[in-house]
Amino acid sequence: MTAAHDLSHELSVASGVAREAGALLQAHLRAGFTVEHKTSADDPVTVADREASTLIMTALAAAFPDDGLLSEEETDDRARLNHDRVWIVDPIDGTREYSTGLPDYCVSIGLAVGGQPVLGVVYAPETDELFTGVVGQGAFLNGQPVRAPHAGPDWRIAVSDTEHRRELHATPLSGMKPSGSIALKLARIAAAQADATFTMSPAASGTSPPGTPCCAPPGAT
């Protein structure tokens, strides 16, 4: 398994291409685009998703030709299972927010080695925030180490904006911060900007019951 201290080049490449993809997404916002749907009205996709995916996958393949690749917007090549290292890409996490002009979306790139996540990069183009982390080395925001989180009692809970509109707004839970992108929620937790997140809905696979918590401690990106 690749040691964490050997991943500086991987982190640099992933960070650079995430910023490039973010610039492409903003260019599409300025130019305008048509929104399509993959499986339902709740599953939008745009030309920006596809072009950002191509940009990221091409760059990663060029930089790391021996690695496997997996993107939400590409046909899965199961040959990736023959690779010890696999890059996992979501060119736009929060496409619904992106396609409706809301700022809560991001580019998400991760690297797994031997089936275990070792590196993560999340870039939020609208706020120019680059969240990065390597397992065992802590989390960083725009290159600066994340400070220790506050001790409460004013907890900050990152919740789904859809669930907040639908039901959570009527609950007495304090400190809720509605947002769309789950990757950005987790990045903000790792960066000590939020303390926890949860969902009231089952996971896409249907294996997790409503109310299943999903959270990550700061520094665990």
Word description of this protein:
The chain has 221 residues and is an alpha/beta fold. Helices cover 28% and strands 26% of the residues. It contains five helices and twelve strands. The chain has helices at 8-31, 47-63, 95-99, 161-166, 182-190, and strands at 35-37, 44-46, 68-71, 85-93, 106-113, 116-124, 129-134, 139-141, 144-145, 157-160, 176-179, 196-197. It has a seven-stranded mixed beta sheet, with helices on both faces. β1 (35-37) and β2 (44-46) form a beta hairpin. α1 packs antiparallel against α2. The longest helix has 24 residues, at 8-31. It is globular and about 50 Å long. The two termini are 18 Å apart.
Output the radius of gyration: 17 Å
What profile does the largest beta sheet have? 7 strands, mixed
Low-confidence segments, given as residue ranges, are 205-221
The share of residues in extended strands comes to: 25-35%
Terminal Cα span: 18 Å
Q: Give the helix proportion (percent range).
A: 25-40%
Give me the strand/helix succession.
HEEHEEHEEEEEEHEHE
Q: For the largest beta sheet, what order do the strands appear in spatially? A: 3-4-5-6-7-8-9
Q: Which outline best applies?
A: globular
Task: Give the SSE layout.
Layout: H1 8-31, E1 35-37, E2 44-46, H2 47-63, E3 68-71, E4 85-93, H3 95-99, E5 106-113, E6 116-124, E7 129-134, E8 139-141, E9 144-145, E10 157-160, H4 161-166, E11 176-179, H5 182-190, E12 196-197
Parallel strand pairs: 3-4, 10-11, 10-12
Antiparallel strand pairs: 1-2, 4-5, 5-6, 6-7, 7-8, 8-9
Helix pairs in contact: 1-2
